[in-house]
Design brief:
mainly alpha
């Protein structure tokens, strides 16, 4: 019978794996602790430049939000002037002349008629002033400006509300739940709710219009609170970050 030689290929493979593991462990232990603790390199995004992008943009958007709201109230004023004019017209006295001014020039008018016509003349002047105001507001394209600015506000506001926590995570490796983060999250929800009211508003739904105004009013309050609560965070960013 031929002598059987033991097959030691398996033991050689095991020895090779053990040697590779020991070599890897040796190299790993030789690395400095700073390298082992380092996360992904976000570059300029986790430096002071990227960190200041969020507060600067959000402060700018707060002013932009106030401008958008002002345009909305101007457009609401433009729409409401028509109803105000109609109410005033119902208070005008009845007369046969072409105008109140001509009616006042008629003879044999009783004192009560003169007083009534003079009061009507004042109302007529108010109507004329309101018509001029409505024409001036209509020439400014308030509806389109308000809609366009509101769209940009929702777009950039939501984008940078997300960018802020991402930047914090890139720098610190974690988030810090608190008033600033909660206010920002609530603000994004209110922006979405206000935008959801627009289709119904375009169909003349007054309830949707009132909700739209309410959502934005509360959102503006949260926006102010977000800026105030974010100021201490800004100081820490300036303290612990470097350019760029």
């Amino acid at each position: 019978m031929q002598n059987m030689q033991p097959d030691d290929s398996g033991s050689n493979g095991a020895q090779g794996l053990s040697l590779a593991a020991m070599l890897t462990a040796s190299l790993w232990s030789a690395l400095p602790n700073e390298v082992l603790a380092a996360g992904p390199d976000w570059g300029i995004f986790e430096g002071r430049t990227g960190s200041l992008l969020h507060p600067i943009t959000m402060a700018t958007l707060l002013l932009f939000s106030l401008s958008t709201g002002f345009l909305g109230f101007q457009y609401r004023r433009q729409r409401g002037i028509g109803e105000e004019i109609n109410v005033l017209k119902k208070t005008l006295p009845k007369f046969k002349a072409k105008s109140i001014q001509e009616a006042l020039q008629e003879e044999d008018l009783a004192p009560s008629q003169i007083a009534m016509l003079q009061q009507g003349l004042q109302v007529e002047q108010q109507i004329s002033g309101l018509q001029v105001e409505r024409k001036d507001l209509a020439s400014q394209g308030l509806k389109d400006k308000h809609f366009n600015q509101g769209t940009l506000l929702a777009l950039f506001g939501t984008a940078f509300a997300i960018e802020g926590p991402l930047n914090t995570f890139a720098r610190a490796g974690k988030l810090f739940p608190g008033p600033h983060l909660y206010a920002g999250a609530g603000l994004v929800v209110l922006w979405s709710a206000a935008a959801a009211c627009v289709p119904a508003m375009q169909k003349g739904n007054d309830t949707a219009r009132s909700l739209h105004i309410a959502f934005n009013a509360v959102g503006t309050g949260l926006f102010f609170w977000q800026v105030v609560s974010g100021f201490p965070i800004l100081l820490k960013v300036l303290e612990f970050t470097k350019w760029p």
